[in-house]
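[recover] target loaded
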């Protein structure tokens, strides 16, 4: 389990003597064989800028920074995998923030790269290697020609071709879960927002937020094009937009028009669930799936990260319960971080939250953030830290009726 590190030209090496280490919260930990799986297909290795790689002397157990100008390396995992640990590193410039990605500890073992993670869902649906970029380009050309006035298709074409976003790519491939963004505004000021950051945040958003208000006609065109098979999903609430329920009037009208023409597929919304009244109207219009983004079921932790404007975690819970009671297949987009999500108090709070709201699915999603920046804004641990593997075991035992996965699922019983 040897240390993996990179030079200033991003050449990657394994150390002949030092073992790799990882982080749980802000603590350096030794990696065990049981924590590791081979680097999955579709994963990528990245250098952590402004860091120094840290390894462990296997004889003494002493942690030590690697001499010279060598940076730590992490892995970015595809959907379907939950990381157990963050890479071990020390920053050489604490004022510099990492790009907003979810970094996983990686080592060299038995002639290959291994990561500190486990499989939490079927990775094939969202494996980037299964997305043919040439076919995406053909789909973009075809739909832009068919709908030359549709600004949403033009916006999504940049997401698909420029950012290689898999959800927008699916829109043009007309398969599985496709994107239909609607909102440029948000009722939260997330610390790690990937589409909009204040100038003084220190973060650089990896993508550009939607800059216009789509018409109902533009939204309906995309929805009808995508909802052509029983398993198709069209989703409001993308990484390139704000909170979709701020455009509830547009969504409600679009759902009504679409469902007047087809019952095919599933209509999903990815939301922070803060605007309960808006989301009740969207639910009543014919919503099938709801995925609610959360980082915690504890108010102080939730508020520190989401910075909600005009709503509370109680609103989120009320929205989810309403949707569940109306027959919507409800899930959470659970932004997880080793050393935080696996705290005793966090686990207990989330189990209670899931039971009260009738959740059907927990999507374990690796939080895209600079670890040090995130840990600086959230409450300190109050109880024991169990580890991510144990957290998953506890969820499966305590929530036997809740699916533990990594991405949006359709209900186990197909629509008639």
């Amino acid at each position: 389990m040897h240390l993996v590190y990179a030079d200033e030209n991003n050449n990657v090496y394994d150390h002949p003597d030092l073992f790799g280490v990882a982080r749980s919260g802000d603590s350096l930990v030794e990696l065990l064989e049981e924590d590791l799986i081979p680097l999955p297909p579709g994963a990528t290795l990245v250098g952590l800028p402004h860091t120094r790689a840290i390894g462990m002397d296997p004889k003494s157990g002493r942690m030590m920074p690697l001499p010279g100008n060598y940076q730590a390396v992490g892995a970015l995992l595809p959907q379907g995998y939950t990381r157990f640990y963050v890479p071990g590193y020390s920053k050489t410039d604490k004022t510099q923030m990492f790009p907003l990605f979810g970094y996983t500890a990686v080592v060299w073992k038995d002639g290959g790269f291994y990561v500190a993670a486990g499989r939490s869902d079927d990775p094939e649906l969202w494996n980037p290697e299964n997305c043919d970029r040439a076919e995406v380009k053909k789909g973009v050309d075809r739909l832009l020609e068919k709908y030359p006035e549709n600004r949403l298709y033009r916006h999504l074409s940049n997401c698909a071709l420029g950012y290689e976003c898999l959800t927008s790519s699916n829109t043009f491939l007309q398969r599985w879960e496709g994107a239909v963004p609607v909102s440029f505004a948000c009722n939260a000021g997330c610390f790690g927002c990937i589409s909009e950051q204040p100038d003084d945040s220190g973060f650089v958003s990896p993508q550009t937020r939607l800059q216009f208000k789509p018409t109902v006609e533009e939204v309906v065109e995309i929805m009808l094009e995508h909802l052509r098979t029983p398993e198709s999903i069209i989703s409001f609430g993308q990484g390139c937009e704000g909170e979709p329920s701020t455009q509830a009037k547009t969504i409600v009208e679009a759902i009504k028009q679409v469902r007047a023409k087809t019952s095919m597929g599933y209509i999903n919304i990815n939301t922070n669930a803060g605007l309960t009244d808006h989301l009740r109207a969207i639910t009543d219009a014919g919503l099938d799936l709801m995925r609610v983004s959360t980082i915690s079921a504890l108010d102080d932790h939730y508020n520190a990260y989401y910075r909600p404007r005009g709503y509370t975690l109680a609103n989120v819970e009320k929205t989810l319960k309403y949707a569940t009671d109306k027959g919507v297949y409800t899930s959470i987009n659970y932004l997880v971080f080793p050393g935080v999500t696996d705290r005793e108090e966090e686990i207990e709070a989330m189990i209670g939250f899931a039971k009260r709201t009738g959740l059907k699915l927990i999507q374990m999603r690796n939080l895209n953030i600079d670890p040090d920046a995130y840990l600086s804004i959230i409450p300190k641990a109050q109880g024991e830290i169990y580890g991510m593997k144990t957290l998953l075991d506890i969820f499966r035992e305590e929530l036997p009726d809740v699916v533990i996965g990594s991405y949006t699922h359709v209900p186990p019983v197909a629509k008639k």
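[recover] notes: The CA atoms of residues 45 and 75 lie 5 Å apart.
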